[in-house]
């Protein structure tokens, strides 16, 4: 399979905006250069078409509620010739499990591996796009999506997909680690889009205006989620300092947290509670794998991985690691 034009091709990226993830990584110049080189390597060697990579990056950022990058990604998609209406449709599907099942069934219906990349925005490429997104989102269909992609894509193309997903994860971590720097870059992209809006045809102008309103709401929601995680982190610190035992249960009666005093009483708990409390104290939730405590996550960091530096920043700032980001710690990059 051959790739289309580069995700970072200067002729495509004509609006000359600094990507928010590079702006965030600029806080640490050495890591900035490493991330920039990683992006260039993907641009030069990836077997995934550049428009597909751009849509995949955008959809993952939208679905994972990563703040301060969507305006930049929208500007990039528009610079590649994509229409605002098509971008709006991209962010709307698939909306539920039934639609996701249809996408997987379409992939399952392909009896042989793909020898060439599907037509852009065809039903088959849309199914591949959703399956790729599913690899980084929690859900019951993740494993099936992985199996279908491994079956259909040549090994070299699947390796390119894994490399690009790792790059996206790293970019998201930098944005979360340095939101104040990413926000400045994304605001520049928003201002660029507002200028672009003035020169659009009336129909395209209406679609673009609607998209900007939607992205503004998404950014606000992502910021709210970030602030909520900070609050939870501070609450956890208070609970750890309490001299009495504290055990927290969710609305379904499952034990989700125990403080330091309660952990010393684990032998007195019922076996099932003891197991769950041990998981909680080890920083693993009952769904399997989400890191809850900064200390545990920091111990799992690998110094030579691209995600180590932004994760350390996140932990030092006391941010809680949400489930979708916690996956990064366990994936070998």
Write down the CATH class of the largest domain. Answer: Mainly Alpha
- Give the end-to-end Cα distance, rounded to a whole number of Å: 23 Å
Care to count the β-strands? 2
Estimate the helix proportion, in percent. 55-70%
- What coarse outline follows from CA principal-axis ratios? globular
Please indicate the count of domains.
Answer: 2
Which CATH architecture of the largest domain? Up-down Bundle
Radius of gyration computed on alpha carbons: 21 Å
Low-pLDDT windows of residues: 2-14, 285-302, 318-333
Series of H and E elements: HHHHHHHHHHHEEHHHHH
Largest sheet: 2 strands, antiparallel
User: What structural class is derived from the secondary structure elements?
Assistant: mainly alpha
**CATH topology grouping of the largest domain:** AhpD-like
Concise synopsis of the structure shown:
The chain is 64% helix and 2% strand. It has 333 residues and is mainly α.
Describe this structure in words.
- With 333 residues, the protein is an all-alpha fold.
- The chain has two domains: 20-212, AhpD-like; 227-330, no CATH class.
- Helix content is 64%, strand content 2%.
- The chain has 16 helices and two strands.
- The chain has helices spanning 20-25, 29-45, 50-63, 70-79, 84-90, 97-108, 123-134, 142-152, 155-177, 179-198, 202-241, 260-263, 271-282, 294-300, 308-316, 323-330, and strands at 247-249, 255-258.
- The protein has a two-stranded antiparallel sheet.
- Helix 3 (50-63) runs antiparallel to helix 4, helix 5 (84-90) packs parallel to helix 11 and helix 14 (294-300) packs antiparallel against helix 15.
- Residues 2-14, 285-302 and 318-333 have low confidence and may be disordered.
